[in-house]
Amino acid sequence: MLTITALLAGIVFGLGLILGGMANPAKVLDFLDLAGRWDPSLALVMGGAIAVGVFPFARARNRTRTVLGAPIQLPTSRQIDKRLVLGSITFGIGWGLAGFCPGPALVALGFGMPKAAVFVGAMIAGMVLFEIIDRGSKS
Fold first, then answer.
1. Which residues contact 55 (CB under 8 A, 6 or more apart)?
2. pLDDT tens, 54-107?
3. What DSSP character marks residue 21?
């Protein structure tokens, strides 16, 4: 049941990204272009996503299990450290250069966009590199 629910949630999420224009890197880059052809429509998409998510996350804070019985694993740290800041900057630079973030890139890859394939490959390489560096720093 959890697998089917996850699949359905992923399909709804992917459709939302497509309908909202988030899987279109040109639309994302226009949203980020404050000094040029700024397109504020993605702010409405993000605002809608936040509005929909606020109540379930508030409710989840007081629970240990989902409605289907899976454990709830929310982040517990509220610390703003160097790692968070550098990760945020790196994410923003990648988003601004490519017009993709991970979810929309996977949706675009499913549509066969070559730019998405390059982005996803770079994203996976970055994850592997992070794991190598992170394991080395813990030894």
1. none
2. 998 888 888 999 888 889 888 888 899 998 999 899 989 988 899 998 999 999
3. T
Task: Report how far residue 6's alpha carbon sits from residue 14's, in angstroms, rounded to the nearest whole number.
Answer: 12
Phi, psi at residue 65, to the nearest 5°?
Answer: -135, 150
Which phi and psi (to 5°) does residue 81 adopt? -120, 180
Tell me, rounded to whole angstroms, the distance of Cα 3 from its chain centroid: 20
pLDDT of 139 above 80: no
96-114 as b/e: b if 16+ CB within 10 A = eebbbbeebbbbbbeeebe
**Alpha helices (H) in the chain, listed in sequence order:** 2-20, 25-32, 41-60, 82-98, 102-110, 114-138
Tracing tokens 């490519």 back to the chain, one arrives at: 98
d(CA 104, CA 120): 10
Hey, what are 75's tokens?
């982040």
Both tokens of 53, joined, read 């998510």
Residue type for position 62: N
